[in-house]
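Minutes, project huddle
Topic: does the predicted pose make sense with heme C bound?
PN asked that the exact inputs be recorded in the minutes so nobody has to dig through chat later. Recorded below.
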Amino acid sequence: MNKLSFIALIGSLPFCLILSVQAADDINPKNGQVLHQKHCQACHISMFGDEKTIYTRADHKVTDKNKLDNQVQACNQNLGLGWFDTEINDTAAWLSQEYYHFDTNPDSDNLKH
Ligand code: HEC
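Predicted holo structure (tokens), as shared on screen:
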């Protein structure tokens, strides 16, 4: 390797790091669906007989995106799952896409439909 290409290689490293951090922030509702199936729905089904009634019953509690984020965060903590923010965001995004249909507010973070 000559000196110039070595400098080019070193110079590109911070750029790669920035790219990979951004990739980790991407919301992936499909991953949220898998996580939800694995960790969340059995308990809700045992309470209501199916997986959706807890989210769709007339007096359900989550009425905006903040409450959804907080609830997923709280369940994560209660259950001791130790999820990363990306897993919380993915699961919240899937629940919103599937059941709650919250609008995407450009000022708030990152729910994509
Ligand atoms: C051990 C049982 C259990 C598990 C496991 C569980 N939950 Fe819950 N969940 C509950 C209970 C109990 C409620 C509250 C029902 C109530 O107060 O009416 C609830 C309510 C919720 C709500 C609010 C529904 C609404 O709009 O009223 C959301 C959202 C939710 N859970 C998400 C999750 C997620 C995400 C997971 C997985 C990380 C999870 N839950 C795992 C028991 C559980």
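Observations noted during the meeting:
- The chain is about 70% helix and 0% strand.
- Residues 3-100 form one domain.
No decisions taken; revisit at the next huddle.
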